[in-house]
């Protein structure tokens, strides 16, 4: 086995995996705290990529500012979506909520097609084509940025959930919503901010991954699919589980594609889900439900 | 309700009423227009291509109409959406023939649509198929059918000679999409390029749904080939691959599959497409007399860059105009027009086109290369 | 101080509480007794805002509170320590107490002082402040639940089956705790399966049966009347 190629494939896998983790974190937060399986999560990823694109092309903002602006705007959209759809439905049947998130996904994707056009677009980033050689491994600055920004954001999110007052409110709500309400936690506020945080994270992933690929209005499908694979593997509602599961998925895809067959790459995710559900239905890294 | 026809009638009346319009223009307006149905994907995945084709055809028609039309009659284009689906293509063709009483049909952007649609138009109406490449479109006998695009065999014949003779890589590796076309490409070019002494280092197949190609490209780069051949039809996948080829640090030659180089790809791929080769019937500086005015008209009216797909739309209109003009001006003299087009070379924006008895065009094909974000012909 | 009038509460289309009226005066201990499924918990949840009443009113210190969210009810000084405790199993004791203080009414004590007071009341919680609630015994969990409620500085504390799952000695300790809380000026609305215990602690009692108040009486009267005990309370 050629070590250079092996190291390169591992590096590729870790970068892709970290992007999956970033996508999955929002998904798992929303499931953990709001008990919503949010099929529209991928659409917020798509919106993040497009807003970054338009902030760059129409407003002339630099890439980083555009990405941050995109994430903030999408977070605000998340607040609106939660207020209009999910909060009023919170006492309804799970299935109703599931369907409405699917409806929201279709609504956003179709409006995206009308507003943005069906043709692919490219999010310009000054880091996209700059190559970094790290030992024998070659990565673009953008890919290093995806990894580094994701690490920074995840550490920040982790510390926030663990130690901040609001983070404690989120965890309490996730572990026992009625108990949280009777403790004096404003559940509506927790739902609203958690949904905003999740949408902002989705948008940020879109803005970061955008310059490594092309964007079009249906890229949300890809994002939500990867997100769900990771969330199911890592355990619904578990942030640390999502971290390990995402990196694992990225590396296994990369090695599977590199040493077995590319045709096999996509199947790996599904195979892993089935294996995990059979062997550890609560996820690979999960010991109990609830946000920890 | 005010329909399109009423609008045209109103416009014609207005034209008559304006005093400085000369007598020939007055006579012109009294003649009914020649009606051409343009059936293409205006929504769905192919919507962008459909739009380009429509724009190209409209630009060509505008030029012809500005010069007084064909045999004293204006060209009128009617647009139909086939949504890229055979069922919608068939119903659009029926509507065009039976309700709208059109004289000609231009369509068949996708092979699947072309194959179904031609059975509705068979021996009834002159039908110009545009970009579809499936051999059966022209193989199965239809006396009024013409197909503009080169078949994949014609393309690979030309392109392999150009790769061997002009690009001259010592070795090559393939990055092909995993479908019928991608596998056929691999077989064709492995054979054709092997025959002229280029070493085949290996290949990778990617999936039609893939969005990241670094794994495959890492493997290909490790083979250290002189050139990487990329077979991609989907513009978005193509652009990602060309970018990622460079992003993995590959510095050799990049060869794009024939017929798949277009301005959108150049726009999306940035500098990664610089000096990448392809083969295309479309080059702007081909010296054809109708090319320059068409480019000017197109750029004046539309924001997209002129492209091969747009040129196919223009060619369809030019072909119909030449056929009617060359046979005395009756748009329904299908036998005469078809015979005329098969017997004579027709000058179009892309060059002089000849047709076989089955209606398959032979188009000039050029080796092209991206230079300073322009697709230009490689001259030897 | 707390006044419930003609309260109606439904789960879906099924009404579980019909026209319940009760009041708790400042400084009282009032108990709500009744057999399983009588609607005691439902009544408390409607007062604390966890359930929305479909009819009737709840007011506290003269202000309507039946349209408020739970955290707003807590801000007014009504705190509900729920049946089953509803703790956060993965969070520490201290985190529970911090969260409990979030909506606390400003009072004479600051956070640190209030924490010390609660730790004095339940010394074991001071020892185990870093332990996760999910790993504690039933009695300790009940202490966490009550302590969490006390951190909000309640004027009126509603306790729903605090003795559930406690060992017999723990039940006595609990009774002492309730007495000392009452002595410190907190009004108590107590729901208890152990009717004897409840009636001994309380000044007045309401007997609830299938969602209706069937009797309101001084606690000692009920305690002394064996017929009533068998008829309504199954003792
Ligand atoms: N979440 C719910 N959904 C539907 N019905 C419920 C729900 N909770 C309680 N009920 C019903 O409402 C009625 C009153 O229940 P509630 O829990 O208030 O009784 P309780 O007096 O507290 O009983 P227990 O002594 O068992 O705690 C019962 O018939 C019960 O079955
Ligand atoms: Mg109860």
If you had to describe this structure to a student in words, what would you say it looks like?
Chain A is mostly helical and 292 residues long. Chain A has a single domain (3-279), classed as ABC transporter involved in vitamin B12 uptake, BtuC (Orthogonal Bundle). Chain A is built from eleven helices and two strands, in the order ααααββααααααα. Chain A has a two-stranded antiparallel ribbon with strand order 1-2. In chain A, strand 1 (131-134) and strand 2 form a beta hairpin. In chain A, helix 2 (41-57) packs antiparallel against helix 3 and helix 5 (141-163) packs across helix 6 (165-175). With 380 residues, chain B is α/β, with parallel strands linked by helices. Chain B folds into two domains: 29-150 and 286-364, Response regulator (Rossmann fold, 3-Layer(aba) Sandwich); 153-280, Response regulator (Rossmann fold, 3-Layer(aba) Sandwich), CATH 3.40.50. In chain B, 45% of the residues lie in helices and 19% in strands. In chain B, strand 4, helix 6 and strand 5 form a beta-alpha-beta unit. In chain B, helix 7 (152-167) crosses helix 8 (180-195) and helix 10 (235-247) runs parallel beside helix 11 (263-269). The longest helix of chain B is centred in the N-terminal third of the chain and has 20 residues, at 47-66. The termini of chain B are far apart. The model of chain B is unreliable at 1-5 and 7-28 (pLDDT under 50). Chain C is of the alpha/beta class and 235 residues long. Chain C contains ten helices and ten strands. Chain C has helices at 40-48, 70-76, 93-100, 111-121, 123-127, 138-150, 168-183, 195-201, 219-224, 226-233, and strands at 2-11, 14-24, 29-33, 55-60, 63-64, 78-81, 156-160, 187-191, 204-209, 212-218. Chain C has a six-stranded mixed sheet with strand order 6-7-8-3-9-10, sandwiched between helices. A four-stranded antiparallel sheet of chain C has the order 2-1-4-5, with helices on one face. In chain C, helix 3 runs parallel beside helix 6. The longest helix of chain C is centred in the last third of the chain and has 16 residues, at 168-183. Chains in contact: A-B, A-C. Chain A binds chain B through residues 2, 4-5, 8-9, 12-13, 16, 117-122, 124, 128-129, 131, 133, 138, 140, 143, 212-214, 216, 219, 222, 253-254, 257-258, 262-263, 265-266, and chain B through 44-45, 47-48, 178, 204-207, 209-212, 214-216, 218-219, 222, 235-237, 239-240, 243-244, 246-249, 264, 267-268, 270-272. The complex binds adenosine-5'-triphosphate and magnesium ion. The site of adenosine-5'-triphosphate (ATP) has 12 residues of chain C, from helix 1.
């Amino acid at each position: 086995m050629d070590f250079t190629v092996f190291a390169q494939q591992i590096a590729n896998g870790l970068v892709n995996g970290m992007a999956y983790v970033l996508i999955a974190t929002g998904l798992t937060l929303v499931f953990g705290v709001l008990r919503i399986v949010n099929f529209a999560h991928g659409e917020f990823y798509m919106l993040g990529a497009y807003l970054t694109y338009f902030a760059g092309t129409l407003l002339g903002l630099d890439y980083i500012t555009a990405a941050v602006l995109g994430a903030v705007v999408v977070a605000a959209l998340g607040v609106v979506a939660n207020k209009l759809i999910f909060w009023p439905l919170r006492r309804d049947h799970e299935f109703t909520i599931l369907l409405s998130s699917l409806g929201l996904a279709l609504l956003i994707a179709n409006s995206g097609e009308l507003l943005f056009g069906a043709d692919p677009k490219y999010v310009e980033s000054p880091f996209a084509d700059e190559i970094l050689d790290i030992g024998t491994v070659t990565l673009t600055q953008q890919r290093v940025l995806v990894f580094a920004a994701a690490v920074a954001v995840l550490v920040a999110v982790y510390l926030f959930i663990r130690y901040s007052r609001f983070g404690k409110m989120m965890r309490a709500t996730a572990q026992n919503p009625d108990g949280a309400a009777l403790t004096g936690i404003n559940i509506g506020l927790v739902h609203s901010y958690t949904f905003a945080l999740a949408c902002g994270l989705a948008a940020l992933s879109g803005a970061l991954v955008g310059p490594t690929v092309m964007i079009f209005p249906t890229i949300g499908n890809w994002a939500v699919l990867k997100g769900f694979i990771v969330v199911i593997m890592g355990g619904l509602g578990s942030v640390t589980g999502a971290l390990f599961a995402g990196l694992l998925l990225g590396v296994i895809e990369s090695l599977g594609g590199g040493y077995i067959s590319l045709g096999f790459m996509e199947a790996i995710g599904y195979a892993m889900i089935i294996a995990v559900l059979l062997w550890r239905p609560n996820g690979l890294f999960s010991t109990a439900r609830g946000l920890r | 309700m005010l329909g399109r026809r009423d609008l045209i009638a109103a416009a014609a009346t207005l034209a008559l009423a304006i005093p400085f319009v000369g007598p020939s223009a007055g006579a012109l307006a009294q003649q009914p227009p020649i009606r051409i149905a343009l059936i293409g994907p205006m929504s769905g995945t192919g919507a962008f291509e459909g739009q380009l084709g429509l724009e190209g055809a409209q630009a060509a028609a505008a030029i012809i109409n500005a010069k007084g039309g064909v045999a004293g009659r204006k060209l009128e284009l009617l647009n139909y959406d086939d949504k890229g689906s055979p069922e919608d293509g068939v119903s659009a063709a029926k509507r065009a023939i039976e309700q709208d009483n059109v004289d000609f049909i231009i369509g068949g952007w996708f092979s699947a649509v072309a194959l179904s649609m031609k059975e509705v138009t068979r021996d009834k109406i002159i039908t110009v198929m545009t970009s579809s490449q499936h051999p059966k479109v022209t193989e199965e006998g239809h006396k009024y059918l013409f197909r503009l695009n080169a078949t994949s065999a014609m393309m690979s014949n030309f392109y392999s000679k150009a790769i061997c003779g002009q690009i001259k890589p010592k070795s090559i590796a393939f990055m092909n999409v995993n479908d019928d076309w991608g596998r056929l490409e691999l077989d064709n070019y492995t054979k054709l390029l092997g025959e002229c002494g280029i070493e085949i280092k290996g290949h990778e197949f990617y999936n039609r749904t893939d969005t990241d190609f670094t794994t495959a490209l890492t493997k290909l780069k490790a083979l250290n080939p002189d050139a990487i051949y990329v077979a991609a039809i989907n513009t978005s996948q193509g652009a990602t691959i060309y970018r990622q080829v460079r992003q993995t640090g590959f510095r050799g030659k990049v060869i794009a599959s024939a017929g798949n180089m277009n301005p959108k790809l150049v726009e999306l791929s940035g500098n990664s497409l610089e000096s990448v080769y392809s083969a295309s019937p479309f080059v702007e500086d081909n010296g054809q007399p109708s090319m320059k005015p068409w480019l000017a008209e197109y750029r004046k009216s539309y924001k997209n860059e002129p492209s091969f797909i747009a040129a196919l739309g223009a060619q369809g209109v030019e072909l119909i105009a030449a056929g009617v003009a060359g046979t005395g001006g009756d748009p329904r003299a299908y036998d005469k027009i078809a015979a005329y087009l098969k017997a004579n070379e027709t000058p179009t924006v892309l060059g002089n086109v000849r047709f076989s008895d089955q209606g398959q065009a032979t188009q000039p094909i050029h080796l092209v290369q991206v230079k300073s974000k322009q697709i230009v012909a490689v001259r030897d | 101080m707390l006044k419930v009038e003609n309260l109606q509460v439904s789960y879906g289309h099924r009404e579980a509480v019909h026209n319940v009226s009760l009041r708790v005066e400042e400084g009282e201990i009032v108990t709500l007794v009744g057999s399983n499924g009588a609607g005691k918990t439902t009544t408390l949840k409607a007062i604390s805002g966890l359930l929305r009443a479909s009819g009737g009113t709840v007011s506290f210190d003269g202000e309507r509170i039946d349209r408020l969210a739970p955290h707003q009810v807590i801000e007014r000084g009504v705190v509900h320590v729920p049946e089953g405790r509803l703790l956060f199993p993965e969070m520490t004791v201290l985190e529970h107490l911090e969260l409990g203080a979030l909506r606390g009414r400003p009072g004479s004590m600051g956070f640190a002082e209030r924490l010390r007071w609660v730790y004095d009341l339940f010394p074991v919680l001071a020892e185990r402040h870093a332990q996760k609630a999910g790993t504690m015994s039933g009695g300790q969990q009940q202490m966490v639940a009550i302590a969490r409620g006390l951190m909000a500085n309640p004027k009126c504390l509603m306790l729903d089956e605090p003795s559930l799952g406690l060992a017999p000695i723990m039940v006595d300790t609990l009774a002492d705790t309730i007495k000392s809380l009452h002595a410190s000026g907190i009004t108590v609305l107590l729901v208890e399966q152990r009717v004897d215990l409840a009636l001994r602690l309380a000044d007045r009692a309401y007997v609830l049966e299938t969602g209706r108040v069937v009797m309101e009486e001084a606690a000692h009267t009920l305690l002394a009347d064996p017929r009533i005990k068998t008829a309504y309370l199954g003792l």
